[in-house]
Design goal:
- By secondary structure, the chain is mainly α.
- The chain contains 4 helices and 2 strands.
- The chain starts with a strand and ends in a 5-residue tail after the last helix.
Length: 79
């Protein structure tokens, strides 16, 4: 079986059950912020705040939100 990036999550195995999740191939154009040394500070802060490891799209969401905040601080007409 093949699935997209939404299945790259520990809850997939828990929800599907170990046997049912066995053998799946998951495609994901994402990185694992929890394992990439470049994002160690982010992963540590995320875990401290949420008591969980960063999820599949945590780093992308973080950068997207910061982009919106920075743009809004430069030009209030965006709001």
């Amino acid at each position: 079986m093949i699935s997209g990036d939404g299945s790259k999550d520990p809850n997939f195995i828990t929800t599907a059950g170990g046997d049912a999740a066995n053998g799946w191939q998951v495609t994901c154009p994402c990185l694992d912020a929890g394992k990439d040394p470049e994002f160690a500070d982010f992963a540590s802060a995320y875990k401290k705040l949420s008591n969980a490891d960063p999820g599949t799209h945590s780093i992308a969401g973080y950068y997207a939100a910061n982009t919106i905040v920075r743009c809004a601080s430069i030009d209030s007409r965006l709001w």
